[in-house]
Design goal:
Elements: H1 2-16, H2 26-30, E1 32-39, E2 42-43, E3 51-54, E4 59-69, E5 72-86, E6 89-95, E7 101-111, E8 115-125, E9 128-129, E10 132-140, H3 146-149, E11 151-157, E12 167-171, E13 177-182, E14 188-190, E15 197-201, E16 204-210, E17 220-230, E18 233-240, E19 244-253
Antiparallel strand pairs: 1-2, 1-3, 1-10, 3-4, 4-5, 5-6, 6-7, 7-8, 8-9, 8-10, 11-12, 11-19, 12-13, 13-14, 15-16, 16-17, 17-18, 18-19
Amino acid sequence: MRNLLFCSIFFVLILAGCSKDEGCDYSQLLIGTWINSQVDAKPVLTDKVFTMQFREDGVEVYSTGYELDASNKRWIENDKFTYKVDGKSIIIEGQGAVSGLFYMEFEIVSVDAENLIYRVPVFKIDNVVYPDPKLYSMKRVRVDLRAKCLGTWYGRSTSPDNVDGFHYWSYFPDGSFSYFYKDDLGHWVSKVDNNGGYFLYGNFLASNYSNDLLSGAVGLAYECWNIDIVGATMFWSGLRANNVTTSFRMDRVSAPPQF
């Protein structure tokens, strides 16, 4: 019994000191989904956030927004990367979501159950070196709001300069969503060309859509939000350019408007 107790205490001490131990198994600590929170210790604009998922099968899924051309932007999940861990180095390579063959080496500065900080000493696309001196901070995804997000929501922007009216959003299990707005005559309209799709990583929401009604822009677009769901109310917030924070509030309803 004494030997068993000693072994148990020794094992716990190893786990407790793993984040500082040079012999730590970083590959196990990395497994999961991480959201970019800071670059060089500064908050990241919400639309510029990226996520990384390190899977147990050696696949790294990288997700972020891309500008495809002057008129089209899209949030894309790319699972064409593989990774391996060598000491404090994460070596990632594979096909980019838009183009190019990538080879990257991340140097782990620190990692624990909740946070990952790393540098990028090597970054190549098609064997061309692109120096990247920045320091990246990531937060581990701990919550799953996908079930709570499903259904229909009714609300509007709560930003101080809001001039927009109320809207409906309906989120479906297949990752698509419908959007409803009022036309100039006050009639509810289903935006049939919405091409709506969404991705949830913890409390981070990325939405693809088309033909922005507010700006009048034509083409594909995406936007990202930090969300919280409290009971039957959902809140969105996003850090935009010039340190401006935009926000929405919406309440769960039984169904979208009837036509």
